[in-house]
Design a protein that fits this description.
mainly beta; 304 residues; Beta-galactosidase, Chain A, domain 5; eight-stranded antiparallel sheet; binds 6-O-phosphono-beta-D-glucopyranose; nine-stranded antiparallel sheet; 4% helix
């Protein structure tokens, strides 16, 4: 059996013979569903998410580029909307490759490539950020595993600066029993506490209220690179998150009051069932000289 890939009405679905599946909207190249072969949905998607291309999709994996958060007015991204334009632009489906072409068994995995370039932006957005760029976003589905990888190319003749992030809404059963390991000793900027910087003291970060922090965990001492994060539920590992070239991790849960005020977030008690773990490069700017390219990625493994 081969992976089955279908694109209709700007929505792409892929299913492995194992039963694992993924759904990606061309709007934002937003992954809206990732199911493992036990039928379990691994991502949280708001039931009021706007899916008609008029507003970024609330839930799944919105892609943040070229700026995270409200753009600083003094920066070249200053006139863009919060979290940039990637999550509210239509992307092109570039095609699929099976693991056969990647050197494995044909039914092991499927890689889906999506593209967005300056030519695809509407005129208003192009004016706000007039750089010549090309993005390739690859989503690879394997048994129990999803990989998201972004390739950024500067196709123009002037340098630009960008930030990028995978704004992943992980589905959890109960936020009050959810914790994150792998952040201890990490400095973080706490947006809930005047954007002041603190150092994480807990080896297992638990959630008791609104949480909105940008962590920049130190790299591992043995130089093996970025330390993977483990999300636990009721004490058992539920997700393993590995990162490549994405030094920062935003951890966000809006909690009851914040979510109450979000029109596209339903059901209203849904804050109890999601945790955003957002690997990215957002605490500083990545500068790409003319002709240069950058790549970063994350791997999501479901452990339950
Ligand atoms: C998080 C930010 O990444 O995204 C939060 O840290 C923000 O501050 C949240 O509230 C949701 O953002 P948006 O633009 O999708 O409503």
């Amino acid at each position: 059996a081969q992976p089955v890939v279908d694109l209709s009405d700007n929505v792409l679905t892929a299913r492995l013979p194992t039963g694992d599946s993924v759904t990606v909207y061309l709007y934002g190249a937003t992954v809206t569903s990732w199911k493992t072969n036990n039928g379990q949905e691994q991502l949280f998607l708001s039931s009021a998410a706007v899916l008609d291309g008029s507003k970024p999709i609330r839930g799944g994996i919105p892609l943040v580029f070229p700026v995270f958060g409200p753009p600083p007015k003094s920066h070249a991204t200053g006139n863009l909307p919060q979290h940039g334009f990637a999550r509210n632009s239509y992307w092109e489906f570039l095609g699929k490759s099976s693991s056969e072409s990647l050197g494995g068994k044909s039914d092991d995995s499927v890689k889906l490539d999506f593209g967005l370039s300056s030519d695809f932006l509407d005129e208003a957005t192009k004016k706000k950020w007039p750089y010549d760029f090309g993005l390739v976003y690859s989503v690879t589905l394997e048994k129990g595993k999803l990989e998201t990888s972004l390739h950024v190319q500067n196709k123009g003749n002037q340098a630009f600066e960008f930030q990028a992030l995978f704004h992943t809404y992980l589905a959890v059963k109960d936020i009050s029993k959810t914790a994150v390991r792998g952040l201890d000793e990490s400095p973080y900027v706490d947006k809930v506490r005047n954007a002041e910087t603190f150092t994480e003291s807990s080896s297992s970060l638990a959630f008791t209220g609104e949480t909105d922090r940008v962590y920049t965990p130190p790299t591992s001492k043995d130089d093996a690179g970025l330390v993977p994060l483990v999300v636990t539920e009721d004490g058992a590992d539920s997700f393993l998150v590995s990162r490549e070239a994405l030094p920062d991790v935003t951890v966000w849960n809006g909690w009851e009051d914040k979510i109450k005020g979000m029109g596209d977030f339903e059901p209203k008690d849904g804050w109890q069932r999601y945790l955003c773990i957002e690997p990215g490069t957002v605490s500083s700017w990545t500068k790409l000289e003319a002709g240069d390219a950058w790549q970063g990625g994350a791997t999501w493994e479901s452990k339950l």
